[in-house]
Structures are given as structure tokens and as C-alpha cells.
Design goal:
Length: about 400
């Protein structure tokens, strides 16, 4: 099935992730961890937003908002439910979503791995396993056969540094301990020696996992480009708007700890995805207190409309690569705040664009309220609400605000 590609001067989109919206991803490692008696996850994902069935409706929403791209993930656990066995039905399902995007004038931006892995992969030690890069590349080779010639942009990994980010921010020790207990129980449940996920792993495994992920990215990029040499292959990073306070600030050391390996790995990427949600000021001891007058999100993090542009500049300056904003949004139940934050942040990006920054697009997180990992369904980033019983989608004012902002920049 050969599909046309869409050539656009700037990508305006919204993002999603399979596990967070599809529901019943029962062969994934996160599904197992969510449903253990000891877990860091507030609740199981269950049916999520039922987007496995309602994906066409979601694409219709994206079109109605005036988007020209849609970012979504392929669920590895669905496509390769047992090691070495690939589901043609699931490949066909995701190909339908690609076609559905193109039919609606949406550029499909595909994430190959958005945190969740097959449970059999995690039970082999996940990304601590020396064979993990080769196993992932085998999966990407299968993806390349069917998808590579139908896409323009692919992300190998979503925020592979996420646990490093939480660590530098000082996630409480009791949470790390609970996560360790969860992983130990998962290994026992699967009757394997070690169980490790991508957004749930031991701190002692950070370096090994990062090394294997970077190898996996490089091998995956090579194999995908064998099927389409023009395919732009990158990865996204969880980025803080890191600000230094004082000459002895630890900011640069924290940046190296959080992003360093991946910034160097960007030499083997066609672009870098920026994902920013908060500002952090670093003094000589660590994270400085948030000012009393700072605007914060529902989780108490400092948000500022200049933060996203600061992260875009930083990544481009350090890597020299084109940048795509693959996620940006705010956790809030105050949609007026969301409207203000989107508009103000886009004004800052406008300045960069007029200065010639190689910025490929802006993709908002997220299209619809969904399952937010350890927070369950209590945190809302969506442009649309979702009724948890009926799965009815309801536009928030921010959806129309975003539409008007896109239209004003397309004239």
C-alpha cells in the first residue's frame, strides 16, 4: 500500500501514545506492573480512552482542530506479542491509522517506542539485556518493511531519559523503593530473574540502559533508512528549562547527567524532539525554591511561556540538529490557563522562527485527556475531555484556541 507523503512548511499537531489511549494493552510490561499488588501506578489503564476502536474519531478531532500532523505510537507488545512472532493483523491496524492520517491531510509522525515494551522483553531484563538492541532492531526491521516508505518522520524512542530527569529533580526515596519492590514482584510473577521497563527501572541500571538504548537507536535508524533513505529518524528528550543561579550553580552538571549521552548520540539522528513541561533553577546545592509568584501546574511545577523556546535553542545550539517540538502542554484543570500557556509559548517560538531556527513543528501534548502513567486518570493535559464511561470526547475551549492560533499563522 503506497501512500502519498505530505510536504508542509510547518507542522502543527497533537500527540498521543498507544498505551495511554488505546486500552487493554495486555501483553505490555506496563500493563503487568499496573496490575500488581505492589505498584507505583495509581490505577490500571484498563480501557483507557478506547482509542484502539475509536482512532478514526480521534483523527477527525485532529482535522477539525485544524492540525496538519498527528503523532502516535506503534505498540510493540501488540505487533510482537511473543518473541519473533509478528501480528499481521496489528500491523494492518496501524497501517490503517497511517492511511487515516493521510486521507485527512495529517502528516503521520510515528513513535516506535513510547515507554511500553512487550512483557516478554521486560522479563528478559528489558534494556539491561545485552541483546536488547538487536531484539529492538529486529522489531524495527519489521516496521521498516511496512511503514518506512509511507512516513516522513519517525521517533525511535520517547523520552529515554525520563527516569534520569525524575532523579535529578529529586524524586522521593520511598518512590524509588516502591518501584524496586514492584520490579522484584514483576520478575517473580513472570518467573524470571530480572524485570526492567523503560519508565520503571533501577537507578543502578541507568548507565547500562542508556548505552543499550543509544545503540538501539543507531541500529534502528540504519535499518529504517534501508527501506527509505529520505526518512527522518530522531528521538525525543524530556527537557527541563534549566536556569543557573550563581557562579557555582550545578546546572551544567545536572544537564550532563540528564541529557549528556543523548546529546552526543544526536550526531546519529536527523532531528531531535523537544519535550518540555517545566522550568527549574539550579543553585549550588540543587533545585532552588520556586518563587511565590510563579505560575505552576497541577503538580506544583513551575511553568513559564519562555521555557519551551529556551529548550529549543539549547538543543539546537548543542547538537546543531533541526528541532521538532514533539510534546508541550500543561497539567491543569483550568482550561483558561491552558489557553494562555499555549498562546504565550507559541509567541516565543515565533521569535525563533523569524530568526531562522530550524524548527520543524509544534506538537501539543495531548489531543485528549488520557492515562498519565503513575498519576492514572487524575492529571489532564488534553484539548478534549473524555468521559470515562462512554468515551465521549468533548472539545475544551483550548482546542478552539489552538485552532485559531494555527489559522492566524497560516494566513
Amino acid at each position: 500500500m503506497q501512500l502519498p507523503t505530505i510536504s508542509l512548511p510547518f507542522l502543527w499537531g497533537a500527540a498521543s501514545a498507544g498505551h495511554q489511549i488505546e486500552g487493554n494493552n495486555i501483553n505490555s510490561d506496563i500493563w503487568l506492573m499496573e496490575n500488581l499488588s505492589t505498584t507505583v501506578f495509581k490505577e490500571p489503564s484498563g480501557d483507557a480512552c478506547n482509542s484502539f476502536e475509536l482512532w478514526e474519531h480521534d483523527l477527525d478531532i485532529a482535522k477539525e482542530i485544524g492540525l496538519n500532523c498527528y503523532r502516535f505510537s506503534l505498540e510493540w507488545a501488540r505487533i510482537e506479542p511473543t518473541a519473533g512472532t509478528f501480528s499481521q493483523a496489528m500491523i494492518a491496524h496501524y497501517l490503517c491509522i497511517v492511511k487515516g492520517c493521510v486521507d485527512r491531510g495529517l502528516e503521520p509522525i510515528v513513535t516506535i517506542n513510547h515507554f511500553s515494551n512487550p512483557v516478554w522483553f521486560a522479563a528478559l531484563g528489558g534494556w539491561t539485556n545485552p541483546q536488547a538492541p538487536e531484539i529492538f532492531t529486529r522489531y524495527c526491521d519489521e516496521i521498516g518493511k511496512y511503514f518506512a516508505d509511507k512516513l516522513s518522520y519517525v521517533l525511535t524512542f520517547n523520552e529515554p531519559n525520563i527516569l534520569r530527569t525524575l532523579n535529578v529533580l529529586g524524586m522521593p526515596e520511598q518512590v524509588w523503593n516502591l518501584q524496586s519492590e514492584m520490579l522484584e514482584l514483576a520478575a517473580k510473577t513472570m518467573n524470571y530473574k530480572k524485570f526492567s521497563g523503560l519508565n520503571a527501572c533501577l537507578r543502578s541500571d541507568f548507565d547500562t540502559i542508556q548505552e543499550n538504548l543509544i545503540i538501539g537507536h543507531r541500529l534502528a535508524r540504519n535499518v529504517l533508512k534501508q527501506y527509505n533513505s529520505d526518512l527522518q529518524v530522531g528521538f525525543s528528550l524530556a527537557l527541563l528549562d534549566d536556569c543557573a543561579l550563581g557562579d557555582d550553580s550545578v546546572r551544567d552538571a545536572k544537564r550532563e547527567e540528564n541529557y549528556g549521552g543523548w546529546l552526543r548520540a544526536a550526531s546519529e539522528a536527523d532531528f531531535v524532539g523537544v519535550q518540555n513541561y517545566e522550568r527549574v533553577v539550579w543553585n549550588s546545592e540543587g533545585v532552588a525554591p520556586i518563587p511565590d509568584d510563579a505560575t505552576t501546574n497541577k503538580m506544583g511545577s513551575w511553568i513559564d511561556p519562555t521555557s519551551l523556546a529556551n529548550c529549543v535553542k539549547y538543543i539546537n545550539n548543542v547538537t546543531g540538529k533541526p528541532v521538532m517540538v514533539t510534546e508541550h502542554g500543561i497539567a491543569t484543570d483550568d482550561d483558561e490557563l491552558r489557553c494562555w500557556f499555549i498562546e504565550s509559548s507559541l509567541k516565543e517560538l515565533d521569535i525563533l522562527r523569524t530568526q531562522g531556527m530550524p524548527l520543524l513543528g509544534y506538537i501539543h501534548w495531548t489531543l485528549i485527556d488520557n492515562y498519565e502513567w503513575v498519576h492514572g486518570y487524575d492529571i489532564h493535559f488534553g484539548l478534549c475531555e473524555v468521559d470515562r464511561s462512554t468515551f465521549k470526547r468533548t472539545y475544551k475551549p483550548s482546542a478552539y484556541k489552538y485552532k485559531s492560533l494555527i489559522e492566524s499563522r497560516s494566513q
